[in-house]
Amino acid sequence: MPNMSLKKVPMPEQDSKIRTKNFSEVALGYTEEQAVEEALRCLQCKHKPCVKGCPVNVPIPEFIKEIAAGEFKKAYEIIVRENRLPAICGRVCPQESQCEGNCVRGIKGEPVGIGRLERFAADYYMKNVKNDVKEVEKNGKRVAVVGAGPAGLTCAGELAKMGYEVTIFEALHTPGGVLMYGIPEFRLPKALVEREIENIRKLGVKIETNVLVGRSITIDELFEEGYQAVFIGSGAGLPKFMGIEGENLNGVYAANEFLTRSNLMKAYDFPNSPTPIKVGKNVAVIGGGNVAMDAARTAKRLGAENVYIVYRRSEEEMPARLEEIHHAKEEGIQMKLLTNPVRILGKEGWVTGMECIEMELGEPDASGRRRPVPKAGSEFILPVETVIIAIGQTPNPLIRQTTEGLDTHSWGGIIVKEETMETSKENVYAGGDVVTGAATVILAMGAGKKAAKAIHERLNK
Amino acid sequence: MYRILSKKILNETVQLMEIEAPYIARRCEPGQFVILRVDENGERIPLTIADYDRERKTVTIIYQIVGYSTKKLSQKEAGDTIQDIAGPLGKPSELKKHKRVLGIGGGVGAAPLYPQIKKLSEMGVNVDVILGGRTKEYVILEDKFREICQNVYIATDDGSRGHRGLVTDVLTKLIEEGKEYDEVIAIGPLVMMKAVCAITREYHIPTSVSLNPIMIDGTGMCGGCRVTVGGKIKFACVDGPDFDGHLVDFEECMRRQRMYKEEEHVCLIGLEG
Ligand SMILES: Cc1cc2nc3c(=O)[nH]c(=O)nc-3n(C[C@H](O)[C@H](O)[C@H](O)COP(=O)(O)OP(=O)(O)OC[C@H]3O[C@@H](n4cnc5c(N)ncnc54)[C@H](O)[C@@H]3O)c2cc1C
Ligand SMILES: Cc1cc2nc3c(=O)[nH]c(=O)nc-3n(C[C@H](O)[C@H](O)[C@H](O)COP(=O)(O)OP(=O)(O)OC[C@H]3O[C@@H](n4cnc5c(N)ncnc54)[C@H](O)[C@@H]3O)c2cc1C
Ligand code: SF4
Ligand code: SF4
Ligand code: FES
């Protein structure tokens, strides 16, 4: 008998008063009983609408059926056939617009908690099953991967499973990309990302850190070194600024810097970790995506009393995951919606406030969203000492500047053939944020997987 | 892990290290820098590549002990390893085949200046150099500069060697004596570079400076190293570190460099205590 409750089994969470004082994970994960109960909400639909919403086609009803039957290990094995990083996706996918967005149970009531169940299966496996990842016999062909984010890691893992000798070149001292430097510990524990990376290493993938492709070595030189194909998964790491007055004042951060200081360099543990970070009592975060939510919630945990999200559209338009918006509000983040910054004010070089203007929704623009227009005379000053800009990122220009024959869009993204992720340069493939612009973990992984398949076909022609 | 092959004490606060770094030694050019982490929990600190040896696969760094991380680095000896070193970062200097160039190195700024001057001399450019320091002990690399320069002028605050006063005094004197330079390359503390630019602007001598804002990744990802040059935002780690000194907003640079003054102090107390 399916469980006909209209609501998901609630997720056990750290209390919002306590969690704003620590960096531990907010959502604690289902117990076995809770997982079975939630799995029983799935109707095992024959036409599987949920699967169509998943960019990597996780066999959703099949794995949920195993959870319902208490076969947690089997559930995990079904998921990893399509998704190498389920512990991560279960936590960070925007399920409401993907798998769960298509779930029939969502028509009346809440959809099945597919992400939570995926996370449960992955966590269960990690905790209870001895990892038996083994290196595959090598086929003697070498592939280079640029960037150790989800796109590069997935591509490398898939190729290694097929016997390729794969080396990932990563600019930072730690692999993981945004999973390590961007998304905070309280949403995605770093130990978990490290374990997934360890599994990819066990497949025989070599990771060379501290190598900035384009400077330390060029794409053409990689071919000279004997690599037969190159996959570029360098992400969209270049932060955008607003171009308003006061952006270079002390106390203004790009979200990337703020989050990198806190996550990668562990500034939250200052002075035990020597990298400092400055957080005022009052902090304004500009933007409405996941990056903005993460920055705001990090600022709160670092001791800020008032944290504002300043977003020029309304809440419905916020691109952040629903759960993050919900968690942010629970934690006391104040939403200044339909508000746009005009300039940042300072005294003796330090931020003292931000002038904002209220917006109202006008005619729909090209994207179909109603365009916000400023309300004349509604300017006001938000007194803050820290401003964090989280209005988006574009691909870093370094690789396109140093690689001849690599076609890119005017905004910087690498142009690829959608079916194979092939670029305009022979035997060079690309995927993830460097192709799409800032998007999602699961799309980056999907692209890495698609490219691995295409590289395999190419090198065996 | 990266091995330290040799270490030299240049004066009481400045030291030199030769570090094994194959990827960096292979492609680096004058003007570029590295970012290193001394140990596992270390901070990422940028240092200019002062010299390199492609065959031995090494790079040389010369650093001044100013705070926590440089102090930690100074505690390492030849044979030890450091956790990470990434590079080469930044754009190579655009060195032109001029007739005559003047290099100005203030304190440890002589270290990043050296590879540029060396390359220029290899290109057949006549170079003069002014080196400055608090006392004669703080003037570094004088011998190495003498090997490749036509004239080496020294200025020290206390007059213990060369001219008593600032490098800018010597600069003004040289110009007034009628020396003609096609370009000045000034590297040192921001106040020094600013003062040099004020003079060369007046005499219309193109001037290149090397900026050293606070950096983290050095790859163009964090935006922390942004500087205003000619009214535009530039990321020093990827667009620089060399810029046209006459276009740099030095006041802003100086202000941004002081952003973590209090924290740096806290950190250092931790190390000494
Ligand atoms: C704060 C934040 C929160 C987010 N939250 C979510 C979320 O909840 N859910 C979700 O689905 N998505 C989220 N995203 C987006 C998601 O993280 C990205 O879409 C995804 O990481 C893209 O993967 P990628 O592999 O293409 O690139 P990245 O993860 O950016 O990895 C690229 C890697 O390449 C390296 N690199 C770059 N240039 C070079 C070079 N020249 N040489 C060598 N290495 C190089 C970088 O250092 C980096 O490690 C978030 C992003 C941010 C910043
Ligand atoms: C491109 C570049 C090249 C450089 N080359 C040299 C060099 O060849 N020799 C040399 O002695 N120094 C060089 N520096 C400066 C050197 O990076 C700093 O002295 C060092 O980071 C100080 O670290 P600390 O922990 O010892 O001192 P701290 O006590 O942390 O800081 C002392 C001062 O150093 C500066 N600083 C601190 N952290 C950073 C950082 N992450 N990035 C940049 N500056 C910082 C700040 O102005 C600070 O006030 C360079 C800097 C840059 C950006
Ligand atoms: S990978 Fe993401 S979209 Fe696919 S089923 Fe899992 S949570 Fe849903
Ligand atoms: S749509 Fe929902 S109920 Fe149907 S199979 Fe998928 S998860 Fe189960
Ligand atoms: S140091 Fe981060 S962008 Fe330059």
Automatic annotation (TrEMBL), chain A:
It holds the Pfam family Fer4_20. Residues 142-448 form the FAD/NAD(P)-binding domain. SUPFAM superfamilies: alpha-helical ferredoxin (SSF46548), Nucleotide-binding domain (SSF51971). It comes from the Bacteria. Residues 19-128 form the Dihydroprymidine dehydrogenase domain. One of its GO terms (molecular function) is oxidoreductase activity. This is Sulfide dehydrogenase (Flavoprotein) subunit SudA. It comes from Fonticella tunisiensis.
TrEMBL record, chain B:
Its cofactor is FAD; [2Fe-2S] cluster. GO terms for molecular function: 2 iron, 2 sulfur cluster binding; flavin adenine dinucleotide binding; metal ion binding; oxidoreductase activity. InterPro entries: Cyt_c3_hydrogenase_gsu (IPR012165), Dihydroorotate_DH_Fe-S-bd (IPR019480), FAD-bd_FR_type (IPR017927), FNR_nucleotide-bd (IPR039261), OxRdtase_FAD/NAD-bd (IPR001433), PyrK_electron_transfer (IPR050353), Riboflavin_synthase-like_b-brl (IPR017938). Binds 1 FAD per subunit. Binds 1 [2Fe-2S] cluster per subunit. Gene3D superfamilies: Nucleotide-binding domain of ferredoxin-NADP reductase (FNR) module, Translation factors. [2Fe-2S] cluster binds at residues 222, 225, 237. This is Ferredoxin--NADP+ reductase. Residues 1-95 form the FAD-binding FR-type domain. The keyword Oxidoreductase does not apply. Keywords: 2Fe-2S, FAD, Flavoprotein, Iron, Iron-sulfur, Metal-binding. One of its GO terms (biological process) is pyrimidine nucleotide biosynthetic process. It comes from the Bacteria. It comes from Fonticella tunisiensis. The keyword Iron-sulfur applies. FAD binds at residues 62-64.
